[in-house]
Amino acid sequence: MASLELDGLRKEFDGGSIVAVDDIDLSIDDGEFVTVVGPSGCGKSTSLRMIAGLERPTSGRIRIGGEDVTDVHARKRDVAMVFQNYALYPHKSIRQNMAFGLRMSTDLSKEERQERVTETAEMMGIGDLLDDTPDQLSGGQKQRVALGRAIVREPDVFLFDEPLSNLDAKLRTTMRTEIQRLQEELGITAVYVTHDQEEAMTMGDRIVILNDGELQQAGRPKTVYENPTNQFVGGFVGSPSMNFLDVTAEPLSSGVRLTGANDDFSYDLTGGRASAFGDSQRGSYVLGIRPEHVSVSDGGDQNAVPATVDVLEPIGSDNYLYLDLGESKTGFEGDGAPDFIARVSTDVEPAIGDRVQVSFDESAVHLFDTETGEAVTAGEDAPVATPQ
């Protein structure tokens, strides 16, 4: 395996009028599994195709194992790619499909190629399918063949382009676990593109979030979830999405008072989150809070936000409460959900139309700059922003 480095990677189309990938810098260690996630059209697959040599960058460099491969033909790059649609040759046997890449990219003898194919097929649990053709296989079996065809080559870098999106939910979970097992056993260096947040969060050593061709944040999944660097990441990562409220901040002697739009509520921050403002506390911000960090009661908390229950949605282990907090609810581009959501225990069951009190776990409150979207209080070491 080998390290992978993207240095100022950029891809333009239509003479520069469309920027699909905008100057991405990313270093991936030898043996690291990195997932890439973002909305449709954010540049995920284009980035992968450039790494594979299927698209030529407009500018920037690609290095594999320290070697600059930007101008190296795809066939001569030691990478293997697994596609969404399997990309199997329909009239070749599974054995022939798996051996094809070996024949094209190695000097192994026929006997050596067949031995390696057999060993890999057994490892993938498809040893008894080698003489079948793809039309005789299920979707899960086809994906195992596609994975085996990549593994058998023993490349420096594995590239996965939404490989599980054609499978049903149960099979996706099974294959996700299988890929994780293989990655741990083989120590492969991998870039895994997906639109599925659960895949991205559970599979990768690190997760990379893209939007509009730009790298928004890269880090450990837990770090990205708990400390988003901007409002887009906060709203994109997590399901249900992070709740957002427009607020105005006023300094207090012992903290900061946040007031909602049209003065429909006030909420006092104290302690670490308030101190993250630095010296400039006054101004407009967006408050972010995840549904699991919202508490709902019928009263008693003076530092709480009044709300009306619109919908109660049982999900088995918890209840989702969709709440109306007045005019302060905001969102981010692509949010699509105007409701404020609380994830509460099953014993919290207010009636539709009930007035309730909403409070937040202050240690989990995020504040974002209204103009830039950058985090003001993303964590203990969060950068401090001053609203414009």
UniProtKB/TrEMBL annotation:
Protein location: Cell membrane
Reactions catalysed according to its record: L-arabinose(out) + ATP + H2O = L-arabinose(in) + ADP + phosphate + H(+); D-xylose(out) + ATP + H2O = D-xylose(in) + ADP + phosphate + H(+)
Any single biological process term in GO: carbohydrate transport
Domain ABC transporter: 4-237
PROSITE patterns: ABC_TRANSPORTER_1 (PS00211), ABC_TRANSPORTER_2 (PS50893)
Cellular-component GO terms for this entry: ATP-binding cassette (ABC) transporter complex, substrate-binding subunit-containing
Enzyme class: translocase
CDD domains, per database record: ABC_MalK_N
Keyword Nucleotide-binding (UniProt): yes
GO molecular function, a single term: ATP binding
Protein keywords: ATP-binding, Cell membrane, Membrane, Nucleotide-binding, Translocase, Transport
Reported function: Part of the ABC transporter complex XacGHIJK involved in the uptake of xylose and arabinose. Responsible for energy coupling to the transport system.
UniProt xrefs under PANTHER family: MALTODEXTRIN IMPORT ATP-BINDING PROTEIN MSMX, TREHALOSE IMPORT ATP-BINDING PROTEIN SUGC
Subunit structure: The complex is composed of two ATP-binding proteins (XacJ and XacK), two transmembrane proteins (XacH and XacI) and a solute-binding protein (XacG).
Stated name of the protein: ABC-type D-xylose/L-arabinose transporter
Biological source species: Haloarcula argentinensis
